Amino acid sequence: MIRSVVIGTGSALPAHRVSNAELAETVDTSDDWIVERTGIRFRHIAGEGETTATLAADACKAALAAAGIDAQSIDLIVLATATPDQTFPSSATKVQAMLGIDDCVAFDVAAVCSGFLYAVQVVDSMIRSNVAKRALVIGAETFSRILDWEDRTTCVLFGDGAGAIVLEAQDTADEGGRGILTTKLHADGRHNELLYVDGGVSTTGTVGKLRMKGREVFRHAVTNLASVMTESLAMAGLDADQVDWVVPHQANARILDATARKLGLAPAKVVVTVDQHANTSAASVPLALDVAVRDGRIQQGQIVILEAMGGGFTWGAAVIRF
Predict the structure, then answer these.
(1) Each residue of 21-35: pLDDT tens digit?
(2) pTM
(3) Residue 24: CB partners within 8 Å, gap ≥ 6?
């Protein structure tokens, strides 16, 4: 049995850290208003010379160091992002060059906040089918560059960053062995107008700005995330009480709380970084995962569930024996 095993995690954040109070100096908002509605206190904003690809490369370097392996042993890079450096080529190929890898499969996936989960399933499938042996799976964003900084209902919610994991093919005969146990993905394009960017190459010829109907997104998020976590656990033959850690998409503290309650999970089992990073879209799950691995909460052998929902709508979950 071939399984995709997480052997290293890494993350990267822009140097510029912005508090709610600092944001309130230029946006009609306040620390109390943001914290009460979202739980967010800080976010990192990319500066000159910092791009989705540079942040992704730094996260990969940290993940490779944690795994104790050389970049040249990587034969696959999949980068999830909604904010690539260029229309083409893919930001994954830029990361490949920055890491000094001469040749490997490298491409981007676009599923917004669910992008990292989509990338995990793509890579897991490629590893299980013997296309790749070692892969970098990345979520990276510079959402600050598609925000309308005059719209206080959206610009306070997002930040920039990157997270990465190294997945390695390992052969095991043990059903209880480490690795990705199940992944489950969904999409429903009927909800485009609830969370989208009002621009694009083929429509306006511009990058556009993020637009969101927050209440409707909240309602769908709680329902869809609870449902997909239940699905993925059932596929793995596990119950919610066997989960050691939930690493969710860090969109809003109230969504995290509501989803945990719906599943009957103790809040102490939920990894929360939204207060420090805000919503970093495809980067939020691997960023939070890296934080919890490095501070010692997530230990080898534990059951970890990753979940996210984003524009599209897209949503998904992955169950991992870490």
Answers:
(1) 999 999 999 999 999
(2) 0.97
(3) 30, 31
